[in-house]
Amino acid sequence: MEIDLLPAVSVEREVDALVIPVRPGPQLDPTGTEVDARLDGALSAALRDADFSGKVGKTMVIPTLGRLPVRRVVVTGIGDGASTANDLRRAWAVAARAARDAGARSVVSAAPPTGDLGEERAYRAAVEGVRLGLYEFLEYRTLDRPEKRVERFDIAGEGDAARRGLAAGEAVASAVSLARDLVNQPADALYPERLAAIAQETASAAGLECVVHDPAALQDLGAGAILAVGKGSVRGPRLIHLTYRPRGTSRGTIGLVGKAITFDTGGVNLKPTGSGLEHMKSDMAGGAAVLATMTALAALDIPFTVHGVIAAAENMLSGSAFRPGDVLRAMNGKTIEVISTDAEGRLVLADALTYTARQGAEVLIDLATLTGAAVVALGRQGTALYGTDQALVDDLVAATDWSGEKLWPMPLWDEYRELIRGDVADLKNSGGRAGGSITAALFLREFTEGKPWAHLDIAGPAWADKVTDYAGKGGTGHGVSTLLAFLERRATQG
After folding, report:
1. Residue 180 pLDDT > 80, yes or no?
2. Where are the domains of the chain?
3. What is the separation of C-alpha 143 from the centre of its chain, rounded to a whole number of angstroms?
4. More confident residue, 145 or 308
5. Which helix (H) or strand (E) holds 106?
6. Domain made up of 174-492: CATH architecture
7. Which of 152, 202, 235, 473 could form a disulfide with 191 if both were Cys (CB 3.0 to 4.6 A apart)?
8. Crossing angle of helices 160-184/192-206, nearest 10°?
């Protein structure tokens, strides 16, 4: 689908659908007022008859019955002013989907309201909404493939600010879509070696450096934790290292670390039937988010050196799989007593965090579908956020003002560290069910080399079981927008 700007919207243009924003009342914008006049008040009458609320997320499709070259009008609620980026993202996402479902191939939209966001940000949010709202994963569909498809979506606007917003929106939406694509891939098609190959291909296209450490290289690095997790699979683990360098002088170095368990059986601690095992291909969502984020850095002109490190492994059950009671030696020399082989994500992250810290990263952020405890605490939409640096935590939370994703700061109580103190080794990889998300974070802290660090447990929002405003079922690409907004925010500071 092609998205572009138009100098102005004309109701005389032959097009399948025209998107008009509507505030509660309902209140039409100038384009809507013109359409209503041409239809002798039929538009406003239809909205009143349907009791259209104008709330964000509400849409209505109204045919023009041949009275205008525009075949149908799609009204989308923007609330009392669409004051947030997420309001606009949601409004244009549901409008684009409503137009598609009504059979529109060509769509024109009135300009999004700028409000406090400013023109560039408003257009960026609208473009992200259109792209993400229309996302579909169809690679493996051979029957009943959707025939309805928007081929062109034009938005009224001109000038440098609108054009910059369009470009940024395309870059971010493309990154989120890549993360979704990766998470939605079946595990027999996406395993550590294949993920590494995709990372190399992606890096080449995005102007990134890429180094892949195979099992032999991991042995040389002393990465005993990630090697142990991958022992049970015929497909060996990989540590994928992407590097972005800004065009100008770098203003610092940031490390992004992602867990990428391409399939998680639980290992010897096998997950039971009914536990959502069929969705365990999504256990690499953190790694997918890191890879996708790296692809958008150049387009957003991020002024930092960024290391994106992805720890990829399959946690499989076999005669060579690691066992409860085994003692592992991580890259930083600490020994780990395995309590549960289903607490494998923190093991691969342990080596990845140490590795990234040693690349010179001044700040570390990791993303992982790490614990069911985070889902119990915050549900399917909330991310549990832990951190050792309050400014870092605050900046990540502030980034959600743009991304619309939900982060909730959680405690790192030192008293809970006793729960992961090892009996025969330095550490245990599990402290039990009570406070499970906290103890997992405390475990990861042991491998951060004292660097300012934040951990995002995205176990809940990484996968969706139902359609939301701008995400369908399956992988959501959660975390990408927040990471990019965080980096942009940091770029504006001091």
Report:
1. yes
2. 2-157, 174-492
3. 29
4. 308
5. strand 106-109
6. 3-Layer(aba) Sandwich (3.40)
7. 235
8. 160
**Per-residue burial over 134-173, b = 16 or more CB atoms within 10 Å of its CB, e = otherwise:** bbebeeeeeeeeeeeebeebbbbbeeebbeebbbbbbbbb
Please give the Cα distance from 408 to 220 (Å, whole number). Answer: 38
Q: What residues act catalytically?
A: 271, 346
CB 214 within 8 A of CB 238: yes
**Could you tell me the fold of the domain covering 2-157?**
Leucine Aminopeptidase, subunit E; domain 1 (3.40.220)
- Does pLDDT of 81 surpass 70? no
Side-chain half-sphere CA neighbours of 200 within 13 A: 11
What gap in Å lies between CA 206 and CA 210, rounded to an integer? 11
Judge contact between 346 and 271, C-beta under 8 A: no
Look at residue 270 in the predicted model and tell me its pLDDT: 95
Stated as kind and residue range, the H or E segment containing 60 is strand 59-63
- Among 242, 253, 362, 364, residue whose Cα is nearest residue 305: 253
pLDDT digits 0-9 by tens, 313-365:
999 999 999 999 999 999 999 999 999 999 999 999 999 999 999 999 999 99
Q: What's the one-letter identity of residue 17?
A: A
Count of CB atoms situated within 10 Å of the CB of 278: 9
Single-letter residue type at 154: D
